[in-house]
Write a structure and sequence with these properties.
It contains nine helices and eleven strands. With about 280 residues, it is an alpha+beta fold. The structure holds adenosine-5'-triphosphate (ATP). Adenosine-5'-triphosphate binds next to helix 1 and helix 2. Adenosine-5'-triphosphate (ATP) binds next to helix 1 and helix 2.
Length: about 280
């Protein structure tokens, strides 16, 4: 079987509501995912030795069993008695530990790719079941959709029929945020109860970027800012700089602004690059 070259896109959470904490210590969420055109490149090269090898020149990406692509490959080998191995080459463009689901998307892309090159023949349902064991954000990337509602831990996916293509500027400050710490600080008594994913979903179907911008919401924001108060300045700077709505993605630290067009996204990104090193002009993918 020849090697396979795949794109692994990042996500933004345009809406994230935390419903409650579960007995297994995860939280039930309601979130709207958007797939964006900030992508890692993954090359899968099958081998007959049975070994899993990861090649990646990003210093923060684990090269062994802690890498989610390693985990998913090993899980497939064990569960389906696969004797082949694979070399996985990851060209990382998505910032790590930023709330953009870099590890999860790599795992989903690898799962889809290995299902082909190892000829396992898993159904969509089986792929989603395996993905959910690896991480809560994996399932979204197993559906070929730009928009989806995520429920449960985020792994119960309902693709949304939204034709809107939005432009964003994403700023990733050099601050690593870990979901565990952010959820650990969360005070559910202080989160807004009346926010609703349906209102944003409807706006995404029928309204302009400006109106969508007013409806962005992330229950984790208070927690993120209590850990790193300086991130408020990023938000303020973006709001002053032509963004018509600014929010954190997932548990941060990526902060994104909504802008009305590609031209404005490029111009705003250029301005923000004077203050921040990692700034991306991206759109729905
Ligand atoms: P999420 O939005 O799903 O919470 P994130 O974007 O905040 O995720 P990741 O980029 O997935 O975070 O990185 C979180 C940790 O996962 C990193 O510290 C890294 O060590 C580990 N990791 C495992 N596999 C990968 C991978 N393939 N790419 C990046 N990080 C990985």
């Amino acid at each position: 079987m020849p090697s396979l070259r795949l794109y692994s896109p990042a996500k933004l959470n345009l809406f994230l509501k935390v419903l409650n904490k579960r007995p297994d210590n995860y939280h039930n969420l309601e979130t709207i995912f958007e797939r964006i055109n900030l992508v890692d490149e993954i090359r899968l090269i099958p081998n007959s030795t049975g070994k899993i090898k990861i090649i990646c020149d990003h210093p923060q990406v684990p090269k062994g069993p802690k890498n989610l692509v390693y985990k998913v490959s090993q899980m497939l080998q064990k569960e389906f008695g696969i004797t082949q191995g694979v070399t996985i080459n990851i060209k990382k463009n998505i910032p790590v530990a930023a709330g953009l689901a870099g590890g999860s998307t790599n795992a989903a892309t690898t799962l889809l790719g290995l299902n082909k090159i190892w000829e396992i023949g898993l159904s969509q349902k089986q792929l989603v079941e395996i993905g959910a064991k690896i991480g809560s954000d994996v399932a979204f990337f197993l559906y070929n959709c730009s928009w989806a509602l995520g429920q449960g831990r985020g792994e119960r996916i309902t693709p949304l029929k939204i034709k809107q293509k939005l432009w964003h500027v994403v700023v990733v400050p050099r601050i690593k945020m870990y979901s565990k710490d952010v959820f650990g600080r969360l005070n559910l008594k202080l989160t807004k109860k009346r926010v609703d994913a349906n209102i944003l979903t409807l706006a995404l179907k029928t309204q302009s970027a400006l109106q969508v911008g007013n409806l962005l919401h992330n229950d984790l924001e208070t927690s993120i800012l209590s850990i790193r108060p300086e991130l408020l300045r990023v938000k303020e700077k973006m709001l002053k700089n032509r963004c018509c709505g600014v929010a954190f993605s997932g548990s941060g630290s990526a902060c994104y602004g909504l802008v009305p067009s590609r031209r404005i996204a490029s111009a705003v990104a250029k301005d923000l690059r004077r203050s921040y090193a990692r700034v991306f002009a991206v759109c729905t993918f």
